[in-house]
Design goal:
Blueprint (H helix, E strand, L loop, with lengths): L1 H29 E6 L10 H9 L3 E5 L16 H13 L3 E6 L14 H15 L3 E5 L13 H18 L2 E5 L4 H11 L4 E6 L1 H5 L4 H8 L4 E5 L16 H11 L3 E5 L11 H16 L1
Parallel strand pairs: 1-2, 1-8, 2-3, 3-4, 4-5, 5-6, 6-7, 7-8
Helix pairs in contact: 4-5, 5-6, 6-8, 8-9
């Protein structure tokens, strides 16, 4: 009898360990942490890959390069030999390219630029070549739909076209707007494409006095493709009193959302260029909560 009880206890311990291991594996698969090469001062530089590994993230959002008055981005990744080095380094350091960023549209006008199609085509082409499934497209200053609501029709019209391009390629373009969640959800519905989703940025509701977790729930799991999980610069994430990261995790858990949490800003104002300190601290903090 005693021997049988011991066997039962032993089996229970094995099952408990197995479930604990599976739960840990699920958590790691559910939330992955990445960083933006541009904000690590390594815009489209192969050194960003090793740096990403050093600061403790699992992925990297690569920038498409400057835009300015060029017809398209200053993108070196369409060069086969350069792209090959990036792919080799990513494999060597076990870093995943989670997204490609069209950050040039922060300053340039997506809704007013005549030749915007080529830039989007180049981004999607690069995504396909590098097996990246998410592109980041900010509406930026000139297409701020809160300050310039009259541009809504132009934005919707162009995003419908971009959505068709993305769907045909089997990728998703995540957009960032200045809109509140309810209005952005309406925008996505009007665009009506599985190729266009929201690339949510924590700083948007926070700096505008809106409830971050309510905004996440309003947008909903299916509308959010990826998240920039930082706030405006000033303090590290662990010292940010207006960002309750544990509550954010609880909200995302309940929503059933899964994906990449991408570190962008939240740099210490005293040492804004201390990349290893800023991104290393933020990565460790995010992993302590989400992994």
């Amino acid at each position: 009898m005693m021997m049988q009880q011991k066997k039962i206890v032993f089996l229970f311990l094995i099952l408990f360990s197995w479930f604990a291991g599976m739960e840990n594996l699920y958590a790691q698969q559910r939330y992955n942490i990445a960083a933006v090469d541009l904000m690590m001062l390594k815009r489209q530089k192969v050194g960003a890959i090793q740096l990403a590994s050093q600061v403790g993230v699992q992925g990297l959002e690569l920038d498409m390069g400057g835009l300015g008055n060029r017809p398209t981005f200053d993108n070196q990744l369409l060069n086969d030999s350069i792209r090959s080095v990036f792919m080799q380094q990513a494999k060597a350091f076990n870093i995943t390219f989670c997204s490609l960023s069209m950050s040039g549209y922060y300053a340039q006008s997506f809704c007013g630029r005549e030749n915007f199609v080529q830039s989007i085509e180049d981004c999607i082409r690069t995504m396909k070549l590098m097996n990246v499934k998410v592109g980041f497209l900010p509406m930026g200053v000139q297409c701020d739909l809160v300050k310039h609501p009259g541009l809504m029709d132009a934005v919707v019209s162009r995003l419908k076209l971009v959505g068709k391009m993305a769907e045909a390629a089997g990728v998703v373009i995540g957009i960032e707007t200045a809109l509140d969640a309810r209005t952005e959800k309406k925008l996505l519905k009007e665009v009506g494409s599985d190729g266009i989703k929201s690339y949510f940025n924590f700083s948007n509701p926070l700096k505008n006095g809106r409830d971050l977790c309510k905004e996440l729930k309003l947008l909903g799991r299916k509308n959010i493709i990826q998240i920039h999980c930082t706030d405006d610069d000033g303090v590290l994430l662990q010292d940010n009193t207006r960002l309750d990261m544990r509550k954010v995790k609880q909200t995302l858990d309940k929503m059933g959302w899964t994906g990449w949490l991408v570190l962008e800003r939240s740099r210490d104002a005293k040492e804004p260029n201390n990349v290893k300190k800023n991104f290393g601290s933020n990565a460790a903090y995010m992993k302590s909560i989400f992994q």
